[in-house]
Design brief:
30% helix, alpha/beta, binds nicotinamide-adenine-dinucleotide, 9-stranded mixed sheet, 11 helices, Rossmann fold, TAT_signal
Length: 464
């Protein structure tokens, strides 16, 4: 180790323009900071040299030794073990909460490149920021009807100018080799057309929920993706989220005995009658396909079973300009083969409320809220001697859009069937159509019996 005097002497021996001791001391702090990223000389005209040695050196300063990091250049190629977590030294006592292994994101070149179609609320507020947390997915192209907005978004997320497309140019995505997958975030009534055209352009499709406006459209989307040999996944974020996964395990492991019934509710007070959500052709329906779908899809996921009968009731406030074309409120019952009965409610007309409660013979499981992007709360109750023990489970949030996109990327990279493929969206659509039919006809509607568990899902995601 060299003292500050040694360094001063060394400097004046090696430079062609000697510096005074005063000058040297004035610049030493600044120069040593430069040294921390790999330079060796300070306070002189001479160009800093980079250290060739890989072993970290240290220099003594008046405040003690400062480690000097070895100079590094980017590795020429990706190391073979890049998917193994980097080992860091232990800094917490073993009795403390641990950080777990370091993340192992894929390198930029290995990630699946996405084109995002539609730059509305969900894309700007959730999906684009989620790429920051994604490990296997990257955004490489945008499709929008608003060139000004797209220019801004492209600059914010580093998308190239030539990878920004208008709706008229959508099919040109075919020629963009960086795009492997298209994420469709358009009004529901446009999902079918853009899925089919996207698959025909040779891209894999991740499509927002609800899958489409009718079972017929859903089937056409599945067929088009099969014909083009492209993958199709419906973006059911709840099925890629740890709280709901834990509830599914609790139910299926029988932790609270046999489940008898589930009550689920997803409603909010929506406004703006001019928005596409209140236009039948673009939305397909009102609260049911938009938010009520979460109750239906989550219950099917938790139970792995399919309902055999539904009974629905619909009400819309008369003369409310929002509900001229789509419904305000739907309440419905479902019967499952195991005897479980469920009761669900959805609305566009009441204050935000999103939750469910599973009633089993030896306990209950409650998630409230259950369907927002963050802040989910899981609580369970079970008798312990003379007490009913109520437990609040602390589970960290994940970025639901990042986990969902990364699952789809993994399916593309490893040629696997997505956990929530098109068939899963089609089944929800069939059940919603039966609920509407039941409400219209004022009678229960029976559904085709499905005996297999998780009949419409692919293999469970690795990371769950
Ligand atoms: P939004 O209205 O904010 O965005 C829709 C985008 O589509 C806008 O950029 C709009 O300009 C564009 N668009 C193109 N053609 C249009 C047309 N003819 N009419 C209207 N808009 C048109 O909607 P959003 O809330 O972002 O929802 C988009 C999709 O995402 C919907 O299918 C919705 O159900 C789904 N969504 C899913 C979640 C989730 O949690 N997974 C949450 C919200 C929305």
């Amino acid at each position: 180790m060299k003292s500050i005097d040694n360094l001063f002497d060394l400097l004046n021996q090696t430079t062609s323009s000697p510096v005074s001791r005063q000058q040297f001391l004035k610049t030493a702090g600044r120069g040593l900071a430069v040294g921390a990223v790999g330079s060796t000389l300070v306070g002189c005209d001479k160009k800093p040299e980079t250290t060739a040695s890989s072993a970290p050196a240290t220099v003594d300063t008046p405040s003690g030794p400062v480690p000097k990091l070895p100079a590094t250049s980017p590795p020429a190629e990706v190391p073979a073990d890049s998917t193994k977590p980097i080992e860091l030294e232990q800094i917490k006592a073993k009795t403390e909460q641990q950080e777990g292994s370091t993340p192992t994101p894929l390198t930029a070149d290995q990630r699946v490149g996405y084109a995002i179609v539609g730059l509305g609320h969900l894309t700007l507020n959730q999906i684009l920021p989620a790429f920051g947390a994604a490990k296997k997915s990257k955004v490489v192209a945008l499709v929008s009807g608003s060139p000004e907005k797209m220019k801004k978004v492209a600059a914010q997320y580093g998308v190239k100018k030539e990878s920004c497309y208008s709706y008229a140019d959508y099919d040109k995505l075919r020629d963009n080799k960086e795009v492997q997958a298209i994420y469709i975030v358009l009004p529901n009534g446009m999902h079918a057309e853009y899925t089919i055209r996207g698959a025909q352009a040779g891209k894999h499709i991740l499509c927002e929920k609800p899958m489409a406006n009718s079972a017929q459209e859903c089937q056409a989307m599945i067929d088009a993706c099969k014909k083009a040999d492209r993958k199709l996944m419906i973006a059911y974020r709840i099925q890629y989220e740890p709280h709901h996964r834990i509830v599914r395990d609790m139910i299926q492991d029988g932790q609270f005995g046999k489940v008898k019934s589930i009550m689920a509710n997803n409603g909010q007070n929506s406004d703006n009658p001019d928005h596409w959500r209140f236009k039948k052709a673009l939305a397909g329906g009102g609260s049911l396909p938009d938010v009520g779908l979460y109750c239906l899809n989550t219950i099917r996921y938790l139970l792995s079973e399919e309902p055999t009968e539904v009974m629905g009731y619909i009400h819309s406030t008369p003369n409310d300009p929002r509900f001229k074309e789509v419904e305000e409120q739907v309440n419905w019952l479902m019967k499952f083969p195991s005897g479980i009965q469920t009761s669900c409610a959805t609305s566009y007309g009441h204050h935000d409320d999103k939750n469910y409660k599973v009633l089993a013979d030896t306990g209950w499981i409650k998630m409230d809220p259950a369907f927002p992007y963050t802040g989910l709360q899981l609580e369970t109750s079970q008798a312990q001697g003379k007490e009913n023990q109520i437990v609040q489970h602390k589970i960290s949030d994940v970025d639901q859009f990042a986990t969902e996109m990364d699952h789809f990327s993994e399916c593309v990279l490893e040629n696997k069937v997505p956990f929530t493929p098109g068939e899963e969206g089609l089944q929800d659509q069939k059940i919603m159509e039966a609920i509407y039919q039941s409400a219209r006809e004022g009678r229960p509607v029976r559904l085709a019996a499905v005996n297999k568990k998780d009949a419409f899902r692919g293999p469970m995601p690795k990371e769950s």
